[in-house]
Write a structure and sequence with these properties.
It is a single chain. With 444 residues, the chain is α+β, with helices and mostly antiparallel strands. It contains 14 helices and 10 strands. It folds into 2 domains: 240 residues, no CATH class; 147 residues, no CATH class. It is 24% helix and 16% strand. It has a 4-stranded antiparallel beta sheet. The chain has a 4-stranded antiparallel beta sheet with strand order 6-7-5-10. A two-stranded antiparallel sheet has the order 8-9. Helix 2 runs antiparallel to helix 7 and helix 2 runs antiparallel to helix 14. InterPro entries: Dimeric_a/b-barrel (IPR011008), Dyp_peroxidase (IPR006314). Keywords: Iron, Metal-binding, Oxidoreductase, Peroxidase.
């Protein structure tokens, strides 16, 4: 789309958490802080600039372990960033996720009035994330980051969420997670779909040209350049309800797994229906070189193999004929499991809190995250399905079911309950390392 030549990314200035896929296996911790004293907040930024890993560290001694730091709009204001500078940031970011809840489908049990405190409220200014290939390395990463916030009396820890990979390597509904990751020009990180051309760096890194040739530039340039936006969402999964739905709508175990695959677009092993349409292929699901390399337009335009309403085809329609240009809505997405697994075979909820910490990274909160959430996941007009919602994550009210395209007659499943409930979230800004140091100084 853009005729501009590829741009060189300053990887040593971009936080590692912007571009890198999550390690597998993994452990992660999310820590939230409130800034009560601006000077202590600026000291936190100065220290954080020394603790945060850059995208150039991917081949360094820390390997797949990194720490990243993000700030809400309230956090930038608490540091003393001038109003004129704040006004140059995305208006969705300035509003915050709680104010965008109705648009996002966060209503009813998912409404901000039910969110886990302090998420969505005035007490989240900074979100520190540590990611590692396992618990021991994670604790070491947190220990390295602790000096950044330790003994700063004007900075208060307000929330923590620990996440660990399940022994199965799946998320709580039983599907292999962390399968898809786009290629970004200049990052040196290959995408998971070899048939997808790399996306312009400006889709994910501020201050660089995007797919339309434009440049998002929060000001001053020292603050905005090489940063990105991040969306954090805590999503509770009703695993018992999901299992009951599959069982009640199937004719037996084999049919139950087929329905699970049609709903997701993949078998639970990670093998896509596009490449394994009749039966599961665990070897394919375990192969990162093959399991995500497919398209839809020529092989499955009508969705008889991978339904147009399935989760993965909604979240990323690839080359399918849909309303809009798919490349303008691509996202870097990561999920991290929290809470204990529901024991195998149990169909009644045990009361434990379990789910997924969802993270999005990109330069366009509006046309990336919010567009996908509102137009592709919580609506179906883009592929001709009226107001049908995503069967897994959609904001269902029990009034509409799921349709499996099939010859000669399509298969209609029972009305869908809401399987995923939002427990809270934040819109954040991931500054560059240069910007973290700039935020450590007072500004008029």
């Amino acid at each position: 789309m853009s005729a501009h030549p590829d741009e060189t990314l300053e990887l040593d200035d971009i936080q590692r958490g912007v571009l890198s896929p999550r390690p597998t296996p993994y452990a992660a911790t999310y820590l939230a802080f409130r800034i009560d004293d601006p000077e202590h907040g600026r000291e936190l930024m100065r220290r954080a600039s020394e603790a945060v890993s850059s995208a150039a560290d991917a081949a360094g001694p820390l390997g797949d372990t990194w720490v990243s730091v993000a700030l809400t709009c309230r956090g930038l204001a608490a540091l003393g960033v001038p109003r004129a500078a704040l006004a140059t940031f995305s208006w969705e970011f300035r509003q915050g996720m709680a104010a965008r809840a109705r648009t996002l489908g966060d209503v009813g049990d998912s409404g901000p009035e039910h969110w886990e405190r302090p998420l969505g409220g005035p007490d989240v200014h900074v979100v520190l994330t540590a990611v590692a290939p396992g618990p021991e390395l994670l604790e070491a990463a947190v220990d390295r980051a602790r000096p950044a916030y330790d003994r700063l009396t004007g900075v208060t820890a307000t929330w923590r969420q620990d996440c660990y990979a399940l022994p199965t390597g799946t998320e709580h509904f039983g599907y292999l997670d962390g399968v898809s990751h786009p290629a970004v020009e200049g990052s040196g990180i290959p995408g998971s779909n070899r048939l997808e051309a790399p996306l312009k760096a400006g889709e994910f890194v501020l201050g660089h040209r995007d797919e339309l040739g434009g440049i998002q530039r929060p000001q001053p340039d020292v603050l905005g350049r090489n940063g990105s936006y991040a969306v954090f969402r805590k999503l509770h999964q009703d695993v018992a309800a999901f299992r009951r739905y599959l069982k009640e709508n199937s004719t037996g175990p084999g049919d139950e797994e087929l329905i699970a695959a049609k709903i997701m677009g993949r078998w639970r092993s990670g093998a896509p229906l596009a490449l394994a349409p009749q039966t599961d292929d665990p070897d394919l699901g375990a192969d990162p070189e093959r399991r995500n390399t497919f398209l839809y337009r020529n092989d499955d335009p009508a969705g008889f193999t991978t339904p147009g309403g399935s989760h993965i085809r909604r979240a990323n329609p690839r080359d399918a004929a849909v309303a809009g240009e798919v490349r303008l809505h691509r996202m870097i997405r990561r999920g991290a499991v929290y809470g204990p697994p529901l024991p195998e075979g149990l169909l009644a909820d045990d009361g434990a809190d379990r789910g997924l910490m969802f993270a999005f990274v990109g330069s366009h909160l509006g046309r990336q995250f919010e567009f996908v959430q509102t137009q592709w996941l919580n609506d179906g007009v883009f592929f001709g399905a009226d107001d049908a919602k995503d069967p897994v994550t959609g904001a269902h009210d029990g009034s509409a079911g799921f349709t499996v395209p099939r010859r000669p007659l399509r298969r209609r499943l029972a009305p869908l309950p809401r399987f995923v409930v939002t427990r809270g979230g934040e819109y954040c800004f991931l500054p560059s390392l240069t910007a973290l140091r700039w935020l450590g100084d007072p500004h008029d």
